[in-house]
């Protein structure tokens, strides 16, 4: 399944001993099923994330909006009006992992599933506010190559294999924040 550029990257990492930037855990891509097994996708507390965003907005005096009509996706999202810019905070639905992205990543109504994975942002002030409770991924981590074979908890899950073959995520960000569900 691992071909071309990604097969070469995996080979280089194995030969040089380079570690993964982000080790993805079970459930991170969403939409899991194990035939004849009870283990489903773990769910991270949505209300906890929204409450944290509300508290943060109040603390640093910014506006926020919960985006709860995004359709099928693997994350929760909130829009902040931060320094006169629309900034989106995404939290994976199964793991406490957060990323920030720009306005251009979503459509004008904040309701569509239009998202461009090359629009991730590093925002130091917001990272500091979230990092005690969440893993906040950097742009570098989010844009690093996603190679399924490198992720022990994912590589043998049939539903993940099927999703990766169909949707072909190229980066960690694409794998974590997706519309596969």
Q: Unreliable stretches, pLDDT < 50, 5 or more residues?
A: 1-19
- Rounded Rg: 17 Å
Proportion of beta-strand residues: 15-25%
The number of distinct β-strands equals 6
Topology (SSEs and partners):
Blueprint: H1 4-16, H2 46-60, E1 63-67, E2 75-82, E3 85-92, E4 97-102, E5 120-121, H3 124-130, E6 135-136, H4 139-142, H5 158-167, H6 172-176
Parallel strand pairs: 4-6
Antiparallel strand pairs: 1-2, 2-3, 3-4, 4-5
Report on the structure:
The protein is of the alpha+beta class and 181 residues long. Helices cover 30% and strands 17% of the residues. The chain has 2 domains: 4-41 and 144-172, no CATH class; 46-136, no CATH class. It has helices at residues 4-16, 46-60, 124-130, 139-142, 158-167, 172-176, and strands at residues 63-67, 75-82, 85-92, 97-102, 120-121, 135-136. Strands 1, 2, 3, 4, 5 and 6 form a 6-stranded mixed β-sheet that branches. A hairpin with a 4-residue loop joins strand 3 and strand 4. The protein is globular. 32% of the residues are buried.
Task: Based on the model shown, name its key terms.
single chain, 181 residues, alpha+beta, six-stranded mixed sheet, 30% helix, globular, disordered N terminus
